[in-house]
Amino acid sequence: MQEDLSINKHLWHAKEINDCLEALQSSQDGLSNDEANHRRTIFGENKLSEVKAQSNLKRFLLQFNNILIYVLLASALVTFVLAHYLDTAVILAVVLANAIIGFIQEGKAEKAMASLRQMLAPKAHVLRDQQRHYISSKELVPGDVIFLEAGDKVPADCRLLSCFGLTIQEAALTGESVPVEKHVKTVTENAPLGDRLSLVYSGTSVTSGQASAVVVAIGQFTELGKINRLLTEVAPLTTPLVQQMGIFAKWLTAVILGIASTLLVYGLFIQDYAFEYIFMAVVSLSVAAIPEGLPAILTITLAIGVQIMARRNAIVRRLPAIETIGAVTVICTDKTGTLTRNEMLVASVLTDQHIFKISGEGYAPSGALSLNEEQINPEESALLQQIGRASYLCNDAAIKESNGAWDVLGDPMEGALLAFSGKVGLIVEKDSQRWRRTDAIPFDAQHRYMATLNHDHDGNAFIFIKGAPEKIMSMSSQQLSSSGEAKALDENYWKTKASEIASQGQRVLAFGIVKVDYHETLISRDELVGKVQLLGMVGMIDPPREEAILAVAECRSAGIQVKMITGDHAGTALAIAKQVGLQHTEQALTGAEIDNMTDEMLKETISKVDVFARTSPEHKLRLVTALQANKELVAMTGDGVNDSPALKRADIGIAMGKKGSEAAKEAAEIVLADDNFASIVAAVKEGRTVYDNIRKVIFWLLPTNTGEAMIVIVALLLGLALPITPVQILWINLITAITLGFALAFEPSDSDIMKRAPRPNQAGLISGQLVLHVLTVSVLIVMAVFSIYGVAISQNLGEPLARTLALNTLVVLEIFHLLYIRNASRPGFKVSMLKG
Question: Could you tell me which residues come within 8 angstroms of residue 396 by beta carbon, excluding any fewer than 6 positions away?
Fold first, then answer.
């Protein structure tokens, strides 16, 4: 037996059952306990590998690994040397506060792997020594035969041996919005993950039916394990703000050290100052130039943004993410549960003459029916009532209301049919009391229909049938007309209209009826063939969120592209894309087509396509990487386990909080508490506001610090006394500057903030405009301070009072400069500009 047996080199979905069992050296009777134990020594336990997490101490110390923090610590050292211990304590307090906030916000990143490991089923029913056992899923090995039933979580990747009405909820892995019907037949070798209907995957859930299956992959070799490996291999990107602040800090450090060194040499060898005097002057220069308050103000600005976003249902897990979201140029979004409600809805009803449109939300049994844009009363149509009755009688689900919200218990498609019954005027609980179910044929993938035999209190008995349109039509010889008459089946009409509904991304389901003798209590499949009267068909869809449509439009006005990446079928994806208003909806690129593209081809194609269907986690990762290669700053939204690697790779990962998996939440920087795509727009707006406020802080703070430094430089070059001492400068920077800077952190958004194009993601914080502004304001500060100081000295007011006047002049100039920066982008002067 080969040790790489569990590695996915075998196309299990394309092999016949006997060939799979032979390759696995197993049988329908499973393995013996001895053989299972032997295989466990070869393959190990059925669990995902664990990555050793960083210790809390190491994560805390890494918060100090920033050059701007180094500069701040250097200023603390300088003040300590000057014996200003209180000032040293204040600076260190700022550094410590910054580190604590970062530690708290970023402390959960390693949980992504842990949440994935929790998705494995804790127990499994397995056949060992021809007896059924209930064991820990960790003990499963390739070749084990297991049993599945409704409510189970699949413990490993398996090839189905037998199944009866088996449906699996795979949304977290494939993005499929409804449970998938499984069967034991082989499928083509190149079938995408979501179409390998003869396989079931680890971590997915059984929604209905029963099955037996043979384990083909465990632990790291399952599809879930592949995602775990991808998460381990993907390195998160540095945010633009962190990159720009790093560049800014290096530039600032180099300039300060360069000027300080030059002045030290100039004072010693040219002006012939005493070493102690020139050294203290250079220290004064360094203290003046270092923006001690900048890290604190930046942290506060980001923290305020986090609080505002939390009120708008967007929870930020890492502080810099609040600014990054404002810079995105592309949002890659999942379809199911993100753009759509992740709830099935009957959107169309097809009868022998008409296609009716149905409105409503979720599983609430209320809504309106319309024909040709005109609302109709469904209670006036006996045929619609009959279709509604078939919808709830031939049904095993239930819907219930809780706190104003309707939820489905059972299959989502059957829940949608129950809601539809209410929309056509039937009171399901009351009407169902008249009808008693005496027999049923459950749905199975082989026959593709479900049938129930129901008797009422008036001596009537009917068999109600629902299933795939082509299957129900093959069993029908007649159709029931709107007038109640039975007519010959018009097969071309039904096929044409069903295709029309399906082209809109709707899943079509047909309903039929057979009248039987009241004393008949059993259903025979044979008696249904050729005796069914076709009632009509319904089209079901996972509808787009209304707010998502508005959000996509606002993204486009803000210059942000929106691209849909889903595991669903191309037709369904394109239909939803058109409804929500995506730009390029002429074609969808499928996972199979992506596989045939080189990275360079994908890089060229991706800008022309907005819909990507039938994608795997690897495809999503490639798409995000291709966009980033095109210099796009990418936000990735998602809720499934399959989204986790792409969420981690993207510049900003956004997970759904309500219906999202824990793996997705832990891999993302932002979690939406309301699963609402519209909340992303609010996050983008707030992110842009935060960046604007950060730029305002820098535009205000740098000229002030540069002005202070130039005061020292001018004094040294001209051989003058310092008009402001180092202690006074430090006091201004730590107390006055931080206090005034806080005002800019609370600035509201500009009115046109969502009408601007995204800023270039390579744009730095330092620009020609900033340099000119710094020089202009600095010169004005130097002139004003020296003028006041000179006048005071000439009036014989004494040096202490002269320096006090110079200090207060500097503070007043900072206040007026703050008012200018705050209102620079707002035309005209208003009294309100002076208010907080």
Answer: 208, 410, 411, 414, 442
- Look-up of token digits 């008696």: 527
**Long-range contacts of 780-785, Cβ-Cβ distance < 8 Å, separation of 24 or more:** 780/707, 780/813, 781/703, 781/704, 781/707, 781/708, 781/710, 781/711, 781/810, 781/813, 782/707, 782/710, 782/711, 782/714, 784/809, 784/810, 784/813, 785/707, 785/711, 785/723, 785/724, 785/809, 785/810
* Cα gap 773→766, rounded to integer Å: 11
Q: How far apart are CA 492 and CA 678, in angstroms?
A: 42
In degrees rounded to 5, what are phi and psi of residue 344?
-75, 145
Amino acid at the residue 705: N
Tokens of 738: 């931080």
CB burial of residue 600 (10 Å; 0-12, 13-18, 19+): exposed
Q: What is the pLDDT of residues 689-741, one digit of tens each?
A: 888 888 888 888 888 888 888 888 888 788 788 898 766 776 776 666 667 77
Q: In 312-411, where does DSSP find H-type helix?
A: 321-324, 382-393
For 483, other C-beta atoms within 10 Å of its C-beta total 10
Q: What is the pLDDT of residues 180-193, one digit of tens each?
A: 889 999 999 888 88
To the query of whether residue 458 is one of the catalytic residues in this protein, the response is no
CA distances from 696 to 297, 299, 642, 776 (A): 11, 14, 40, 16
Q: Do 158 and 222 meet the contact criterion of CB atoms below 8 Å apart?
A: no
Q: What angle do CA 578, 580, 583 make, to 5 degrees?
A: 60
pLDDT in tens, 1-31: 444 444 445 789 999 999 999 999 999 999 9
Residue bearing tokens 């499929």: 176
Strand, coil or helix: what is 541? strand
How far apart are alpha carbons 579 and 573 in whole angstroms? 10
Q: How far apart are CA 756 and CA 586, in angstroms?
A: 27
Residue 707 CA: distances (Å) to CA of 46, 696, 787, 802: 65, 17, 14, 18
* Residues 365/421, Cβ–Cβ less than 8 Å: yes
Strands 330-333 and 561-565: parallel
Q: Are 59 and 106 in contact (CB under 8 A)?
A: yes
- How much is the pTM? 0.67
CA distances 700 to 527, 695, 748, Å, are 85, 8, 17
Residues 441-445: what's their mean pLDDT? Answer: 80
Alpha carbons within 13 angstroms on the beta-carbon side of residue 628 total: 19
Contacts of 27 (CB under 8 A, 6+ apart): 21
User: Which residues contact residue 320 at a Cβ distance below 8 angstroms, ignoring those fewer than 6 apart?
Assistant: 239, 241, 242, 302
Cα atoms in the 13 Å half-sphere on the side-chain side of 616: 17
Q: Looking at residues 173-181, what average pLDDT do you find? A: 75
Of the listed 152, 334, 610, 692, which one is catalytic?
334
